Amino acid sequence: MTMLKTISRRAIFRRAMGLTLALGLAAALLPFGRNAAAAATPDEIKARGKFLVGVLTDYPPFGGTDANQKPAGYDADVAVLMAKALGVPLELVPVTGPNRIPYLLTNKIDVLIATFGITAERQKQVLFSNPYSALTIYVLAPKNVVIQKPEDLKNVSIGTARASTQDTAISAIMPPGTQLKRYDDDATALQAIISGQIQAIGASNTILAQLNKDYPQLNIEPKITLKEQANGMAFRKADTALAEWSNKFIAEIAANGQLSEINKRWFGIPLSSLPPMPTF
Fold first, then answer.
1. 46 and 117 share a domain?
2. Section 29-39 average pLDDT
3. 3-class DSSP state for residue 172?
4. Nearest CA among 209, 203, 231, 272 for reference residue 78
5. 238 and 122 both lie in a single domain
6. What is the tens place of the pLDDT at every residue in 256-268?
7. Is the keyword Signal in the record (predicted)?
8. Are residues 143 and 191 in the same domain?
9. CA distances from 95 to 38, 71, 137 (A)
10. How high does pLDDT run on average in the chain?
């Protein structure tokens, strides 16, 4: 009985050692891929030889997909320029609204470029860059409709989604007598301006991009800016060097016109200016 127990203990020990060695070998053989994005500086990313960027694919034109179902949009184009500046290949990693912070904090990606609004709550978890884009709410109308200031709204019929951000913003600035029509959602308001039921619409730059792409004959343009949400790249709190490098990169592509070209490509208009960094 004693000999059997000894043999059993030895067998268990050998199996345990074997498992430990196997796990160690597997860890050593893991490639520097999407599960090893712990690089905290530009130099570490260059040494690894790949730049892992989390992007949305369900929020065009900021983050969508192309004909081959590859990530495409404003954010992806910014990531392409960023990888080029770093001098390494780019890997775009699709993320969603709920999983984008977990992907960052568990080292699946180096950075989020994912239409991420800079808020006080999110700043508790991540480190933000300076704004590189904005989700902008406008009063939109055809080029031949004269709207230069809030007082001009009383001369046109304007529609918006009921209880939306744009509804609140328009209601706050419109003069008495304005014909504001409230619809159940953005899609219904969009159809109203397409069909000529209204002359102007309160909507975001994503709606502007859709109108300019699908209905260029309407010549829709921004008339009044109602509100801007500053979007920043997001990093792990410890990745200060990468965030600082990214701020210089953003300033450079804003100054040389590359960011404006991206905005024109996806939204149909040049980038006027980036919003300031929010303070909380």
1. yes
2. 48
3. helix
4. 231
5. yes
6. 999 999 999 999 8
7. yes
8. yes
9. 17, 10, 24
10. 88
| pLDDT bucket at 36, cuts 50 / 70 / 90 | low
Q: Quick one: how far is CA 41 from the chain centroid?
A: 22
**Using CB atoms within 10 A of its CB, is residue 208 exposed (0-12), middle (13-18) or buried (19+)?**
buried
Strand ranges (DSSP E) for the chain? 51-56, 64-65, 71-72, 90-95, 111-112, 127-142, 157-161, 179-183, 200-204, 220-235
Could you tell me which residues come within 8 angstroms of residue 272 by beta carbon, excluding any fewer than 6 positions away? Answer: none
Q: Looking at the domain assignment, is residue 24 inside a domain?
A: no
3-state DSSP call for residue 61?
A: coil
Give pLDDT, residue 130: 98
Taking Cα atoms as reference points, which of 81, 74, 104, 38 lies closest to residue 265?
74
Helix (H) or strand (E) holding 248: helix 240-255
At residue 55, does pLDDT exceed 60?
Answer: yes
158-179 pLDDT, tens per residue? 999 999 989 999 999 999 999 9
Alpha carbon separation from 132 to 112, 165, 183 (Å, rounded): 12, 22, 32
Range of the domain at 46: 42-134+230-267
Any domain includes 12: no
Examine the domain organization and report whether 241 and 256 are in the same domain.
Answer: yes
Q: What is the pLDDT averaged over residues 179-207?
A: 95
**Which residues are paired to 91 by β-bridges?**
52
Q: Are residues 239 and 130 in the same domain?
A: yes
Q: Please indicate, yes or no, if residue 37 is contained in any of the structural domains.
A: no
